[in-house]
UniProtKB/TrEMBL annotation, chain A:
The protein's role, per its UniProt record: Involved in the transmission of sensory signals from the chemoreceptors to the flagellar motors. CheA is autophosphorylated; it can transfer its phosphate group to either CheB or CheY.
Region (Disordered): 237-265
Protein name: Chemotaxis protein CheA
GO cellular component, as recorded: cytoplasm
Coiled-coil stretches noted in the UniProt entry, renumbered to this chain: 4-31
HPt domain boundaries: 1-103
GO biological process: chemotaxis
Keyword Metal-binding set for record: no
Source species of the chain: Paracoccus tibetensis
Single GO MF descriptor: ATP binding
From TrEMBL, chain B:
Matching PANTHER family: CHEMOTAXIS TWO-COMPONENT RESPONSE REGULATOR (PTHR44591:SF25), STRESS RESPONSE REGULATOR PROTEIN 1 (PTHR44591)
Record has NADP as a keyword: no
Lineage, opening ranks: Bacteria, Pseudomonadati, Pseudomonadota, Alphaproteobacteria, Rhodobacterales
Source species: Paracoccus tibetensis
CDD domains: REC_CheY4-like
Gene3D superfamilies (alphabetical): 3.40.50.2300
Residue intervals of the Response regulatory domain: 3-116
Keyword DNA repair carried by entry: no
Database matches in Pfam families: Response_reg
GO biological process: phosphorelay signal transduction system
Name this polypeptide is given: Two-component system, chemotaxis family, response regulator CheY
InterPro entries given in the database record: Bact_response_regulator, CheY-like_superfamily, Sig_transdc_resp-reg_receiver
Keywords: Phosphoprotein
Amino acid sequence: MSLLDATQTFLDEARDLLEQLEAALLDLEARPDDAALINTTFRALHTLKGSGAMFGPAEMAAFAHHLEDTFELVRQGRVPLGPRLVGVFLRAGDHLRRLLFTPGVEHEAETLHLLAALRELTGAAPESVPAATPLAPEAQPDMRQVMINLRLPPTALAFGTNPLALIDELRGLGDCLVTPLTGAVPDLDRLDPAQLSMHWQMTLTTAADRAAIEDVFIFVDEPGVVSITEIAPAMPEAPARPRAPVDEAPAAAPRDAATAEPADSQVRVSAARLDTLLGQVGELVIAQARLTALAHHRHDAALSSIVEEVERLSADLRDSAMDMRMLPIDQLFSRYRRVVRDLADSLKKDIQLVLSGEETELDKTVLDRLGDPLVHIIRNAIDHGIETPEAREAAGKPRRGTLRLCARQSGGEMIITIEDDGAGLDRGRIRAKALAAGIVGPEEELTPGQIDQLIFHPGLSTAQAVSSLSGRGVGMDVVKRTITDLQGSIEIASEPGRGTRITLRLPLTLAIIEGLQVAIGATMCILPVASVEECVELAQVETGTSSGRNFVDIRGTMVPLLWTDRIFGTARSGSVVAVLETEGGKTGVVVDQVIGQHQTVIKPLSPLHRCVPGLAGATILGDGSVALILDVPALARCQTLPPAPARQPGASLPHVA
Amino acid sequence: MPHPILCVDDSASIRQMVTFALQSAGYSAVAAVDGLDALSKLNGAPFSLIITDLNMPNLDGISMIRQVRTLSDYAGVPIVMLTTESDEARKQEGKAAGATGWLVKPFDPAKLRAVVAKLVGPA
């Protein structure tokens, strides 16, 4: 079978149709109102037009189209089928036969004559035949961005449209970002899987012209179903693609600066501008939290989907902004080479500094505030830890001492260890000093670990002589306070004759923390999630009192309770205990209600409130109100002090502007 | 290998043309001369696509589509109207009856094959 065969089939078919047409028209002359005859006539003309357009001469198809249009008026009853009109149609049938079987002869005069006769009899001017013009290809070879909204009717799936196939086909045209719009999807219990309730929005970057895109939606291309909008015409270069790294060998001829630029070019930005950016991102995170809270109350699916998008974008933006503030810790470590060398020289010690993890990144604020404590720890290690070469030799150790500075990231924490292979802490002398200073009682039994912890106690200096570098009254207690202020912790481990290791744990950033929002009375407070171990109902646990302090029994462990009323001077209330792990052990903060976890942008307190103990800062909640960030270690310290009688009983929590 | 394609048209030449265009691309095709014939050819047998004319004797295309859509065997099976109708209302009537889409006669066999490939996948 071939196209030629089909053409022959059509000619046979057309001959039959023309005979049917003639017979029907002759019958119609006698019975002009016979609907069956009218339909037969119409269908004959219709098929002659349709098949003729494929296999017959173009003039014949066009003429058949006119006849069909005219006869449609008859079929609709708008034009009576009189004998004269039947006569014209009979002649038109003859003319169709001529157009079909005697091609190449001039038929136009007769065609026009018959059309004029039809016009005269029906009073209607048949519209010109819509020419089967091929779609003019738009000369647009450039890449363009096109936004496509696809909103299929709910019956689309049942009626055989496969949205996935359409989307896949569209993706074949170029880079395509497909966003499903699920706002109209009902809840699971009301979901009819046979009904389509999703819509799609697609951004296509393509060189294909509009006709090619429309072609994808050939069956669904109707107003309200598909909208195709060009959003970015002819871009200078392929967009939405990562720029290829410029790593090929440099060309012999010098290129212009833009192309010669290395792939990882850098821009210097002042720290203040970065701070401003992070501040603004913080404001955005707060505004977004308010938006989320609003959407949550509105139960509006469309709003929720936008809010989710904003939420994701602001989280990304926050991460990017925070990332910009991250600096390699090498900036600190490299400074210490000189410090170690000079100090070792002046003390006649032979010390090598071994660094590792210098590339680990840390927030700039943390990094800046870490500098002095680290120097202090290093000085202590060199001054008090590592022995002179002679002493080392006598102890059977290499003359050269080693100081290791190591940084690594673990989870959301930065862990820095400062390790020396010196003599270790002299526990006997620490204990003696502590006794002399009245820090410990003479009969108090202390474990080695507890003795080691004493070096963080204010006012304990064990250096035999005040050296030029360390021991100027600034002790390890200051180091500890600085680290604690940075929301970090410090640990010490020592082995006599083998050395000492100090471990610092620091948050990677200070600007934004994961916070647990709790209510204490009418005030919202934030506890750092990282240190919250669990929350228990106060009514569910055993409480007791020992030496004037409240304790709660958490699975056999007595955890001191922290009532904030004593510190903030509010009425005592509370039903939930948030158990926090702090460096002094566990503390149970009594709160009225646990609200939930959320990203907390830390805002500094005003100078007036900064001196209030137990407050680490403030943050702005989703509803625009202010929550106080509690500094639990500081609160715990307050607790151990006798209650301040100076506080007015009516005083409320400080208000933060 | 997709199931056969049902081609419904009262015009022998169009039937021949459509089945030829499909068979030459490797699809199997079954022809029916009108809506009634189409329903008897379907009769529960698996088909992956129905291509139909609208204006046909005995049972017209739109009535046939409406009946096919009541058969659970053919839920989701695409139905393409292949017709010379240029009346938008008629086209909407067909879509409301359950047609997937619309192709206009005269058709380009290559385009028909592209559309079929799109709807049922390659042969």
